[in-house]
Amino acid sequence: MTASAPSASATDRVFNFSAGPAVLPESVLREVQEEFLCLPGAGASLLEISHRDKLFVEILHNAENTLRSLLGISDDYSVMFMQGGATLQFSAIAANLLRGTDKTAQYLLTGSWGKKAIKEAKKEGKVVTAYDSADTNYDRLPTAADYTCPDDAAYLYYCSNETIQGVQFGSEPECPASVPLVSDASSDFLCRPLPVDKYGLLYACAQKNAGPAGVSVVVMRKDLLDIADPNIPGYLHYKNHHDNDSEWNTPPTFAIYVLGKVARWLQNDIGGLAKMEELNREKSQSLYKIIDESNGFYKGHAQTDCRSLMNVTFNLPSEEMTAKFVSEAGSHRLAALKGHRSVGGIRASIYNAMPREGVQALGDFMTDFASRNSG
Ligand SMILES: *Cc1c(COP(=O)(O)O)cnc(C)c1O
Fold first, then answer.
1. If pLDDT is split at 50, 70 and 90, which confidence band does 342 have?
2. Is 250 part of any known ligand binding site?
3. What would the CATH number be for the domain defined by 14-24+272-373?
4. For 203-216, how does the pLDDT look when each residue is reduced to its tens digit (9 = 90+)?
5. Which terminus of the chain is more solvent-facing, meaning fewer CB atoms within 10 Å of its CB: N or C?
6. Phi, psi for 277 (deg, rounded to 5)
7. Which of 81, 87, 189, 311 to mutate to test the pocket of ligand 1 (most atoms within 8 A of CB)?
């Protein structure tokens, strides 16, 4: 080897507020690094072994079992690992539960991801937007009085946390018992305990709060597996994934391996999802408090009763000030804070793996920046 490029070290790591792919627990990254060249017992890297190798099958089963234990998922539900991101689920859900029926699928539209989900579902059947907060740029969520859902709907769909707008449901929306409740939980999966038995199906891509890009987790009530027309594309057919233990084709082995480690970190290091929720409340509240006490210098995007624990969105007095904030934050090692263009301003994504110290550093910077630039 000739002179090598300077290598980045762990001390070069910034506090990373990226919306996704996003921060991972440092201890998980270190474990992955240690095992990377040679997975214990395999004589090769995890990247190099078959998905049918018993070592990988065990990793997959352990990941599933840890998720089952964290969320209290019963045997009435299947847990599947799929590729295609959350975006493939927009199509898969409608292909399995709506295509070929004369039912309607009801959607609560509360942000950008819901809008994309509706667009795909419309290709499969009759879709009704039962609630839509576009008029207020998706800054709020419905109460039961704001929408209706017929008893014979194919399903009621919502997004538990709209990542771009930073609005999060505090609990499941009202849904008739006869209608499967479906949730896109991509950006708040594992941020708190969930009453899984209220759901027909819930899913999450991993790269926001649960692992690296490449895998999505689908938790589906088993009686819904048989509804789909078997002639839908094989990969979209949930039953194929369920019947083959997520090995109908080659699963994203590396992503499942890392997701399993993140789940174990939640279980062992954090102490479970109730504890995680407590930490997430503490972290997010410390930032919302600074916003609320800034005399209007920072303006939160979400209405206060639906503020997200995961994505804290706010605006500054001008675009110039926003650019200045992002740039100065960068020199304080606070990275990836620029908001999505549809909301503008700042988005601080403070997922499970964002340490308290990172939120504290951002909070201190916000307080200081406001005092130097307001009035
Ligand atoms: C990121 C995200 C998606 C899209 O995920 P992909 O894996 O890129 O398809 C969908 N829904 C929500 C809530 C998200 O945060």
1. confident
2. yes
3. 3.90.1150.10
4. 999 999 999 999 99
5. N
6. -60, -40
7. 87
User: Measured in angstroms, how far is the CA atom of residue 162 from the centroid of ligand 1?
Assistant: 9
CATH 3.90.1150.10 maps onto the chain at 14-24+272-373
| b/e sequence 146-160, b meaning 16+ C-beta within 10 Å | ebebeeebbbbbbbb
Q: In 10 A of CB 79, how many CB atoms?
A: 20
Pairing, β 155-159 against β 334-335: unpaired
The pLDDT value given to residue 300? 98
Ligand 1 atom with the shortest distance to the CA of 111: 13
- 208 classed as catalytic: yes
Mutate to test the pocket of ligand 1, among 88, 205, 216 (most ligand atoms within 8 A of CB): 205
Distance 373 CA to ligand 1 centre (A): 35
- Provide CATH 3.40.640.10 ranges for the chain: 29-269
Quick one: which atom of ligand 1 is closest to the CA of 205? 7
Its pTM stands at 0.97
Catalytic residue among 188, 208, 261, 265: 208
Ligand 1: residue whose CA is nearest its atom 10: 86
Rounding to the nearest 10 degrees, give the CA dihedral for residues 217, 219, 224, 227: 0
CA distance readout (Å), 200 to 46, 141, 205, 226, 265: 33, 21, 17, 13, 27
53 in catalytic set: no
- Please name the amino acid found at residue 325: F
* Mean of pLDDT over the chain: 97
The arrangement of secondary structure in 29-269, i.e. its CATH architecture, is 3-Layer(aba) Sandwich (3.40)
Catalytic-residue membership of 275: no
